[in-house]
Here is the input.
Amino acid sequence: GPGRRARHLRHLVAGHHALAGLPLPARRRLRGARHVLVLLKPRASNIVPSQADTRARLIECARRVFLENGFHAATLEQIALAAGVTKGAVYSNFDSKADLFLAVNGSRMEQRMEGYQRVRATATDIEPMVRDFVRIMIRHDPDGRWASVVAEAWAVAASDEPFRLALIEQSARGNAVIMRAVEDLAERVGI
Here is the structure.
């Protein structure tokens, strides 16, 4: 029973078995001790993820669910299930499906923008730069499925002004990065 297991654990801890992994000086100091406190490393399943970890997992799982089901058909329940969290955990990180979509889309845009910045830093001619930008776009959405999800989100945003304004702002930020790259190149090469 539980009492027997506890006695056995105390015996192991008090014995030399518990000390085997310690450096020699520590073993010598503890050999005569009547009780030794053993700190066990918690198993991964016992570690509570931080809110940032949960948020990142939700964004990644939401991306997959949106790609599989489309924006309209995807539900927060499906996303929570895919992320292994409750729907409450979704709502503690995002106000709505639209808010979660904006986070997913923003994350994808940031990845593309990093690629555009790398291209911009080494570009010496407009045509190769534009080709590299297009390659980045294709690499981030090779089958066009994400573009379909975005188009569907825009259709939903037509009747949701805060969502529409947030999508416009995201698009404007992305377009500004591309515009600055073109202006920077034009200035560097004297166009």
Summary: Confidence is low (pLDDT under 50) at residues 5-19, 35-44. The CA atoms of residues 112 and 140 lie 7 Å apart. The chain is about 75% helix and 0% strand.
